[in-house]
Amino acid sequence: MMAGSNLENVLRSGTFAVTGELGPPKSGDMEVVRKKARILKGHVDAVNITDCQTAIVRMSSLTAGLIALSEGVEPVMQMTCRDRNRIGMQADILGAAALGIKNLLCLTGDHQKFGNHPQAKGVFDMDSIQLLQMVKGMRDDKKFQCGEEIKKAEPRLFLGCAANPFADPFEFRPVRLAKKVEAGADFVQTQIIYNVEKFKKFMEMVRDLGVHEKCFILAGVTPPKSLGMARYMKKFVPGLDVTDEVIQRLADAKDQKEEGIDICVDIINQVREIPGVAGVHVMAIEWEEAVPEIVKRAGLADRPEPKGIEPVFTSTSAIDEAVEKARQEARLELQGELEKAQAEAQASRELVVKEKEKVASEISGLKKQIEEAKSMVSRKEAEIQKLTEQLQKTKKALEESSTSAASQVSTPQPAAQVQTETVSVASDALTAREKQVLDSLSKGLAALKEVLGLNDAQFEAMKRFLEAEFMLQLGTVVREVAAAPAAPEAPAPEPVAPAQAAAPAEAAPAPEAEAAPERPKEVVNLVAQGNVALHSKDYKKAVELFKKALEISPDDEKAKAGLEEARQALAEEKEAADKAVEVKEVEGLPPCPEEIDPEEWKQKWVVRFTARGNVALMKGDFEAAKKEFQKALELDPDNEKAKDGLKRAENKEDIYIPDVKPGEAAAAAPAPEAEAPKAEEKPAQEEKPAEPAPEEAKKAEEPAPKKEEPPKEEPAKPKPKVEMAAPAGEGVGDLGVAPLPKDEPPLEERAKGIPEDVYKEPCTGVIQSVTLGDGDKAMIVGGETALPFHTFEGDIPNLPRTAFEVLDAPPEEWPECLLKHYSDVVNDSAAWARKCVNEFGAEAICLSLDSTDPNGANVSSADAAQVAKKVIEAVDVPIILWGCGNAEKDTETLREITSLVENRNVCLGPLTDANYRTLGATAMAFQYPVVASTPIDVNLAKQLNILLENLGVHLDHILMDPSIGAVGYGLEYTYSVMERIRLAALTQQDEKLSPPIICNLGREVWKAKETRLPTDAELGDQERRGVLMEAITASTLLLAGGEVAIMRHPKAINLTKVLVEGML
Amino acid sequence: MIIAERKPMKELLGMISGVKRLLIVGCRGCVAVCSAGGDKEVSILAAALKLGVKKAGGDIEIDTDTLVRQCDPEYIEPLNDRGSDYDAVLSMACGVGVNFIGDRCPDVNVLPALNTTFYGANLSSGEWKEMCAGCGACVLHLTGGLCPVARCAKSLSNGPCGGSQGGRCEINPDVDCIWQQIYDKLASMNRKDELREIMPIRDWTTAGHGGPRRRIREDLLP
Amino acid sequence: MSRIKGFCCNYTLSVDIEALKKEGLVPEDLEIERLPCTGRLEVPEILDAFTEGADAVFVVGCQVDKCHNLSGSYRASKRVKYAKKILEELDINPDCVEMFFAGRGETEPVVEAARTMASRVDQ
Fold first, then answer.
1. Looking at the predicted structure, is the pLDDT value of residue A411 above 50?
2. Which residues of C touch B9 (CB under 8 A)?
3. Which candidate, A806, A787, A948, places its Cα nearest to that of A867?
4. What is residue A633's predicted lDDT score, i.e. its pLDDT?
5. Could you tell me the pLDDT band of residue A722, with boundaries at 50, 70 and 90?
6. Crossing angle of helices A412-428/A359-401, nearest 10°?
7. Does residue A485 register a pLDDT over 60?
């Protein structure tokens, strides 16, 4: 036996059980419950009391269950997870068990949306299965859900659950029931059955799982009250399968109610035959009268004698009223007595506190009061006696007719007992000292007793009053003591005389209670404001506020403490500020940011000054260089590089002086080049092109070799110039572009008189240097320490580069104005590449393997590799191999190519998050640079770089492709992403974003609608339009930080080159 | 991402009644992606409020700006200076942004322009759906990647309730029964036996019921 | 007299608006703003027109499937729809803004649109 409920008894005895259902009212009217209970009584073994069904507020199932129980009907209390959390539910479970409820049906509950408070917050702390687990744990393991032990009287409950055989997924329904049984269900009540065939199938699956042997299954039935109700249930009640047959039967019936009852009986008879069905659950919603008839017609009228129905509260109204009356009277009296007793105790306490001389007269007053109390007590006792006798009489009379009335016990006595119990329990909790006080109090009282000649009863009464008073006071004392530690010693004195003993103990709280409110409100406010100011670091204000507070109340401890704290904080702040100023003044630096160690900051600036010095040195501005190096030495007098630089500046030993005077437009052309070849030359001369990124500090060492370079460079310089200009001369007509005139005086001149800090904002990071290609034509991209074209702020050793795009198959969608420049070579990629280099002066070639796209021509990787091989062999400039964008195919194709050309340093792309592993590994093996391609997002770009680095690909072998939008097609988005990447790398030293950026822009521009629309008056010449769009896109992206631009039109490329050279 | 939607115009007009100078600050984070508080919505709101105030016979000066994010201090702290010139700053970020301005910009009278609704995904242009409840104790590995906490009306842990019909939730036929989907998914992966396991009662402390949450990664702390 | 503002795609309305006014074909207080494409029109511009005193606003774009920029006119119609929603929230009759479509170079639909809006305002 789990709980010994009637339902449990019936089910365990093997009798076919019948349960009913009772919906509590939407009011506090308990007569409704009683009426329904009386209808069902004797016809069913137990009655489900619903818990706010369909989420409509009703009398709680616990309360209504108790009312039903008082009518002698056994309730099955329903409990849903919708309205309470585990705390509330366990509390109600304990309460239900305490008051005699023995069956609990655990449900998840209808969603609040269906009820009359759809705005309510659904709790659903757990689901029905977890609820079963929890209650089972409380019952069987005697543990709360948290694991804490239930020390005594664990709830003994027979646990039920619901099952809906008609909900989906059907195959899962028996499994879910099995879960419920495993979680703790002892019995199951199913959803209303009309479709018996489906229920049979369900039961078959249930039997297959063996669930019917572990719990009792009660089939749910409902008599349809009318055709309308049946139709409503079919249509609107989720999970209810009303068959057409039922509808038809009702439609054909003369008397629908009669037919409804017959339908219900038929279903009961059918489900009874199904193995594993242990009973029926008859739900006559708002039609309880039908239940006796149904049960009778089904041949189930003969219910077993109820066992285990033990109401805690009785049923007969006579007894109820008598009890209630008696209870109320007793309660009133007890309360009155308590109040009087308190008043008396108060009075007596005051008496005791007064001077010893008055004790005698006081005692006589006390005596009088005690007499009064005493007579009242005896009166009360007499009345209670009378009431009890009355009750006994009624009881006896009733016992003969009704057994259920026998257990009535409620009289004033239990209440009185409770009263005394609390006192004694409370005194258990007294501390030793309190006990001591109480003890001496008792002794004092004993003395009084002797003096006054009181009898025992009188003495007892008096003692009780004082004890009660003591208990009352105790609460306050404890609180007061805790709140005001200023005078905790007050109650301590050794009790000698009774009066004295009592006095301090009780007097102590009084002054304490007064002390607190004496702090003027104003002071409290001021102190509070002061503390707020203190907290928000406004120390001056805090000091003022505390001072004000002290003016009003000079001894306020809190204000004093606050003032002290604020003053100290103010002093500290001043000290810190002074310090900061010191650093600033002495060292002439921008204030050190909090997060950086001042020493580190200083070192950073030493490096910066040195770097600036070197830049100035390179420009031949020795004065400026000297100043910078001096600044660096001021900070770090031992810095070798700065010393070295200073020496050189003083000796006017520059690295390279451009012998062009600003303002001469014609002679200006070499000026940009003068710096450009420098960058190109460097990798060619130094054997290791993959040198570590040039750090600012390193630059100090570089000038020396460079000093010798100028003569060598001069002759080398014109070469690219000639190449570049060649197309212009050689009849390709309009492809050439004249260099930009340099009519601006250099920045240093323009900025004369303006402090450098105003227009310079040097960066602290550095862009990776990546080597593309090999041999003489190898190029380095990146390596700068300044924002694009900000030559005045840092070092830009390498020009941004352009690459010609060559396709591996004749282009299909190139407009004629673009295609015409390559029309002779489109069928041979190698010749195409050669033409770009020889005729157009291509610095690099990007071979786009578009034809390999599986969604396009799907040329095999092997064939594409052969084409690539030819292209690579045809030219000596750096080659970028650009796949079709299909991650898998690209992996295949690019790997194929690398196996053919391993001795040439080609660049592989695009690597995406889908193929970076395979291609990254290949590239690493051959030490090829790669293009890391991500969809236009800073974080994704960074993430791919990190992934590649984790794989072992160094950042100086990565070019970032942030995904490009052409002008008019998202250029600004690309621009902002690139700009953010570049700022992160340079100003926030985000190394993971420091690889150079490659922009494959030609393909984007030439697929834009505007490059394809033919020449017309409004839009102008088609070729010119396309060229400008490509050049504008390219120059914009280079301004945003691009280092390599892959382009298509030779003229656009020339325009871009000229712009770059003109700017640097 | 975090999904939000603009508050009704009347509520916003009520909020800014009496405001003479208003700064509307958008956010380019989640709310821009879900078309609730990006540059575009900022300009629309500014125009609409101007019209609304004018219609009520009032007068207002509205400036606009859109920050990269409103949930990082570097982007919002400058607002403390700038925003203090305005009678109010109407943030078009999610509640995070509004709170963060509230925290970091004591001189700013910050107001919310959006109702922050849920964590969701973009089903198609103009349609978003809740996918995660941020409960702090993910069980998606047990449920085929489909979340019963966020996507079941009752946050059930142990399978569909009796209201699951034809793959739909009982609360609304437009709502899928996520437990049906979980069942189907696991069945298709031959994993449906796993649903026989009882998922124990949840610990909701991680879901915010243990008080406001925070996350710390020691190695990243300054 | 009410003020009506129209936004027209450059490819519609081939007749000078002043001439139409002289003929009395369109209301006197009509103001037309030509756009390269109505896809360029944003919601704030529609709302601003009301703020600046218009009683009704209309947009005339190319036929949805004939837009020179493919989806410009379709976009405009969506923006008009959103502008209607905002007007409704502001207790302004949403019929005060409307989207119309016209063929290439057609003036008739623009005139028709202006008249429709004028009659709506008069009501």
1. no
2. 86, 89-90
3. A806
4. 84
5. very low
6. 130
7. no
A333 CB within 8 Å of a chain B CB: no
Query: Distance of CA B199 to CAs A37, A617, A772, A826, A963, Å?
Result: 38, 74, 58, 66, 46
Measured from the Cβ of residue A361, the count of other Cβ atoms closer than 10 Å reads 11
Give me the pLDDT at residue A166, please.
93
- Are the beta carbons of A130 and B171 separated by less than 8 Å? no
Query: In Å, how far is C74's CA from the nearest CA of chain B?
Result: 15
Q: Does A125 touch chain B (CB under 8 A)?
A: yes
Distance (Å) from the alpha carbon of B163 to chain A's nearest alpha carbon: 5
In chain C, which residues have their Cβ closer than 8 Å to the Cβ of B50?
47-48, 51
Q: How far is A617 from chain B (nearest CA, A)?
A: 37
Q: Do B112 and B151 sit in the same domain of this protein?
A: no
Helix axes A359-401, A456-483, angle to 10 degrees: 100
Q: Is C43's CB within 8 Å of B55's CB?
A: no
pLDDT, residue A430, reads 57
Q: Do C42 and B43 touch (CB under 8 A)?
A: yes
pTM: predicted TM-score of the whole model, two decimal places:
0.52
Q: Which pLDDT score is estimated for A710?
A: 41
The whole-number average pLDDT for the span A794-802 is: 90
Task: Please give the span between the terminal C-alpha atoms of chain B, in angstroms, as a whole number.
Answer: 27
According to CATH, what is the number of the domain A6-297? Answer: 3.20.20.220
Q: In this predicted structure, what is the pLDDT of residue A1037?
A: 93
Cite the DSSP H helix spans in A717-828. 718-729, 747-750, 756-759, 816-819
* Torsion angles phi and psi, residue B176, rounded to 5: -75, 150
Number of domains in chain C: 1
Model ipTM over 0.90: yes
Q: Is the pLDDT of residue A492 over 50?
A: no
Same domain, B78 and B28: yes
CB of A219 within 8 Å of a chain B CB? The answer is no
How far apart are the CA of B199 and the nearest CA of chain A, in angstroms?
A: 8
B67 in contact with A, Cβ within 8 Å: no
Minimum-distance CB partner of A168 among B165, B171, B201: B165
CATH architecture of A519-587: Alpha Horseshoe (1.25)
Whether B44 sits inside 8 A of C86 (CB atoms) is yes
The boundaries of the domain holding residue C66 are 4-122
Answer whether C48 sits within 8 Å of B47, measured CB to CB: yes
| Residue B153 contacts A where some CB pair is shorter than 8 Å | yes
Say if residue B29 is in the same domain as residue B109: yes
Q: Is it true that domain A771-1058 has CATH number 1.20.120.160?
A: no
- The three-class DSSP label of residue A48 is strand
Question: Do the Cβ atoms of A526 and A546 come closer than 8 Å?
Answer: yes
Alpha-carbon span A46 to A53, nearest angstrom: 18
Which range among A224-238, A244-258, A685-699 shows the weakest confidence by mean pLDDT? Answer: A685-699
Domain check: are B111 and B152 in the same one? no
Report the CATH number at residue C9: 3.40.50
Look at residue A680 and tell me whether its pLDDT is greater than 80: no
Answer yes or no: do A238 and B165 touch at CB < 8 A.
yes
DSSP output for A568-631: HHHHHHHHHHHHHHHHHHHH--PPPPTTS-HHHHHHHHHHHHHHHHHHHHHHT-HHHHHHHHHH
pLDDT in tens, A610-647: 878 877 777 777 888 888 888 888 888 888 878 888 88
Domain membership flag for residue B215: no
The residues spanned by each domain of chain A are 6-297, 317-489, 519-587, 598-722, 771-1058
What total number of domains does chain B contain?
2
Pair B16, B114 in one domain: yes
Domain ends where: B93, B118, B143?
B118
